[in-house]
Amino acid sequence: MLARLLRPKTTVSAHCDLPCGVYDPAQARIEAESIKAIIEKYQSNDDPVFRARALIIKEERSQLVKHHLWVLWTDYFKPPHFEKYPQLHQLFNEATKLAGAGGTKGTLDVAKADELLAKIDEIAKIFWETKNA
Amino acid sequence: MLARLLRPKTTVSAHCDLPCGVYDPAQARIEAESIKAIIEKYQSNDDPVFRARALIIKEERSQLVKHHLWVLWTDYFKPPHFEKYPQLHQLFNEATKLAGAGGTKGTLDVAKADELLAKIDEIAKIFWETKNA
Amino acid sequence: MLARLLRPKTTVSAHCDLPCGVYDPAQARIEAESIKAIIEKYQSNDDPVFRARALIIKEERSQLVKHHLWVLWTDYFKPPHFEKYPQLHQLFNEATKLAGAGGTKGTLDVAKADELLAKIDEIAKIFWETKNA
Amino acid sequence: MLARLLRPKTTVSAHCDLPCGVYDPAQARIEAESIKAIIEKYQSNDDPVFRARALIIKEERSQLVKHHLWVLWTDYFKPPHFEKYPQLHQLFNEATKLAGAGGTKGTLDVAKADELLAKIDEIAKIFWETKNA
Amino acid sequence: MLARLLRPKTTVSAHCDLPCGVYDPAQARIEAESIKAIIEKYQSNDDPVFRARALIIKEERSQLVKHHLWVLWTDYFKPPHFEKYPQLHQLFNEATKLAGAGGTKGTLDVAKADELLAKIDEIAKIFWETKNA
Amino acid sequence: MLARLLRPKTTVSAHCDLPCGVYDPAQARIEAESIKAIIEKYQSNDDPVFRARALIIKEERSQLVKHHLWVLWTDYFKPPHFEKYPQLHQLFNEATKLAGAGGTKGTLDVAKADELLAKIDEIAKIFWETKNA
């Protein structure tokens, strides 16, 4: 029951550069969850065709994580946020790097996907603090 | 406090056609929320350049709603679901039409965006029932 | 009669969501023909680089088939069509699934591409009946 | 003879750069038909929102015409074709220009869409001659 | 003569996330130059169709500027660079904002395009210093 | 010092179909440089995952080369240019083919990337002659 209440239905929000004013770190997290699942499936399936497909799709999904994070960093966060959370720039830089060649694009290590998810959660925590402020 | 618990952080999930097994109607809803906000901003701002930009972006966001719903309909839902929920096909067809020319692409009526959101919520309800089954 | 046979060439038509009113199942079929050819070439060429490229491209082409079919289902077909052809929803759902992970994306079986082509032809038959009605 | 008339429907074909060996000028023609219909609808509807949407979509469709023609020119046609049909280069250059700023992108003149269609038909005629050779 | 030597021919370089190791701020600058030209043409042409097209294209080009800058910030620059140039994070954040709603997307002021170009040049200066280090 | 002056900073220029009037062969060359670097990295790294990623990315980058060249051929060059440089059509056709299945898409031979780069330089030479004329 509580699980059902925890569903994203009521707070989802996004991001276009009108701007519509709607943003949500969930977009990046959804893709990162997908990446983690892809890596797990890759590790437990040694069919070469399946694995090639997993690599193709993981590449795309990692790019989407980067894109959604970049949008938050440039479009949602404003100078006062960066003043209040001086670690934000580095946090975003590290998170997007974790979805790149040195991160989930280049590896098949599920720990790397977990690092990426943790970093997105750090960003999400700050995001919701500023949103609810 | 409860509000913070309701955040999407823990259940977000998605959708690639590996398949990764991760899906979430939140992706469609996020874009639909964005469309609603765009329409509201359009209605309260008569600058022609702003309005032209709103139309351009609303077109893209509506297309994204359609895409995310199509993915759920084809990739997530399976024959047993369609048997259990015989209204599903029509529901998806109506929802995607509501993001098209006869819906949020073609109009600037906020009620149309609300209809789309309600339809997505109907789909989400069924989605979570099948997910938790 | 002959006029109908001559049809495709002169009336080729499509699909944008203005809507322009121009639609044609040929768009999906063209991509499905391409998929079949890719699978055949993959089967008769064991160079690993060629095969990797075939997998990358087959993934894209399968996605295009899904896209073109989704557009027909949502944008071209209207409630009266679904009443007259109650099998349409399932037909489209099966056809798009045949271009997905359980279909031409996930396999290298030319029979799967043939199934997809046959399903598209069933849709095309209904499409032209409604178009000429 | 009749066989040739029946051609498009059964052999529709395309174009990926594996190459799959499947090409068809119908892809460009479908988009050009769409452009013509968009212009006609624009001319008979003076609602500014509809017209803005028509311009957005016409821009995309014109780009697709260019893309499909470029693919034929680079990927399908080979040196012997260009020797046999020395006008081919200019034909493609003119056709793609007709879908650009000086053509269907920049104007709302239905005659321009007709010129584009005629040019695509010239290309298609040569295409089918080489295909059947 | 010197002008010809100054051409980009020999040093252009780029950026994919293999990574290929090839990056170049010229990619962002090219799009920003395009934006400036679009704004100038918009200001000197009051045809509403031309202006609508200018807005559509300016939106795309501004997005490309953001994309190329994000790639440099995440993929090219490494921790030692951020230590040596502590202003880099803010510089990139401001530059990408200048290509967004509060910058070249939202305005038709040529001064805004000049600000964006100047910011890209600041980034380029640092880029080449690190590249030649 | 001279090396720094030779940087592309001052002359980069581009290309949209407004048209903005800004074009630059550097865009194609940047992607071709990237392709060459990808091939070199592929040849010196036999990790199968790295190699699969290299193939995926090389496919995209080759497509971008084709796109940038097509834009120059259709949008920048005008009839008087084709009269003055009768080899231009063939040059572009060969260059785009060199980025296709018979060129950098289909091979991992660094000599093919060099041929592509040389062909782009021939085009660039003519481009700048017409630009400075």
From TrEMBL, chains A, B, C, D, E, F:
UniProt cross-references to Pfam families, sorted A to Z: Sod_Ni (PF09055)
Matches recorded under NCBIfam families: sodN (TIGR02753)
Protein name: Superoxide dismutase, Ni
Gene (UniProt): sodN
